[in-house]
Specification:
- This protein is mainly beta.
- 10% of the residues lie in helices and 57% in strands.
- The strands form two sheets. An eight-stranded antiparallel β-barrel has the order 2-3-4-6-7-9-10-12. A two-stranded antiparallel sheet has the order 8-11.
- Strand 6 and strand 7 form a beta hairpin.
- The N terminus is likely disordered.
Length: 207
C-alpha cells in the first residue's frame, strides 16, 4: 500500500469511526495498538547517532526504544525515549587518546505534534549528557568519577516523516552546555565537547 493510499485510508477511518470506537477498530492490528478510545499507542526500535561538532566525530548509539502514544483528535505525541550508553575514542589535552562513554538521560518525556495530512512529526526531547566514564586506552581506570555530565539539560527539536508502518528518519541540531563534576578532566572535556551545531539523527521502526 503506497503512502497516499495509506494516509487517505487512515484519515477516512478516523473521520467516519463511530463515537466511542477505539482505534483498534480503524487501525491495522500489526501497526499500532489502542489501550482506550482516542489514544494510539506506538512502540518503536530506535537506531540513533550523534555528531559532535567540535570533535567532528559521529558516535553511533546501540539500539534503543521509544514507547508513547498519539492522542486523537489533537494528534499530540508523547513518549519516553530510552537509549543505551555509547562509546568512542577521543583525544584529550594532557591525556591523549581515551575511550569516552556517553549516556543520554532523558529529563522530560518527548512531546510533539503529528501533522497527519503531511505525515510529519515535530517533537522536542530534553536530556542530560552523562559522561559515564573516560578510560585511558588500555587502562581500566575511570578518570571522571560518577557525576560527570552537562551542567544543564540539553534540548533538541527533531522532525521527520511519521509512519505507522515501516521505518522513518528524524534529525535535529542541539547545543551541549558546559560539563561539570568531571574532576581534573573538567577543563579538558570542556575544550572538546560543549558547544552548538551538534546533530542528532535517529531511525524509528515499529517494534
Amino acid at each position: 500500500m503506497n503512502k497516499f493510499v495509506r494516509r487517505s485510508a487512515l484519515v477516512a477511518a478516523l473521520c467516519v469511526a463511530p463515537a466511542g470506537a477505539t482505534l483498534a477498530t480503524v487501525m491495522p492490528a500489526d501497526t499500532a495498538s489502542a489501550s482506550s478510545a482516542g489514544v494510539l499507542n506506538v512502540n518503536y526500535v530506535v537506531n540513533a547517532s550523534t555528531t559532535l561538532a567540535k570533535l567532528h566525530q559521529t558516535v553511533v548509539v546501540p539500539p534503543g526504544t521509544f514507547k508513547g502514544s498519539v492522542s486523537i483528535p489533537s494528534f499530540i505525541l508523547t513518549g519516553v525515549l530510552a537509549l543505551p550508553p555509547a562509546s568512542d575514542t577521543i583525544s584529550l589535552a594532557g591525556v591523549g587518546l581515551v575511550t569516552a562513554t556517553f549516556q543520554l538521560a532523558e529529563t522530560k518525556p518527548v512531546k510533539g505534534l503529528v501533522n497527519l495530512g503531511a505525515e510529519t512529526v515535530t517533537a522536542k526531547s530534553k536530556f542530560n549528557v552523562e559522561i559515564v566514564s573516560v578510560d585511558p586506552l588500555g587502562l581500566p581506570v575511570n578518570l571522571v568519577g560518577n557525576s560527570c555530565g552537562t551542567s544543564t539539560p540539553v534540548s533538541v527539536t527533531f522532525s521527520g516523516k511519521f509512519a505507522f508502518t515501516g521505518s522513518e528518519s528524524f534529525s535535529g541540531t542541539y547545543t551541549i552546555p558546559p560539563l561539570s563534576n568531571c574532576g581534573a578532566l573538567t577543563a579538558a572535556l570542556n575544550l572538546v565537547i560543549p558547544g552548538p551545531g551538534n546533530i542528532f539523527n535517529a531511525t524509528f521502526a515499529p517494534a
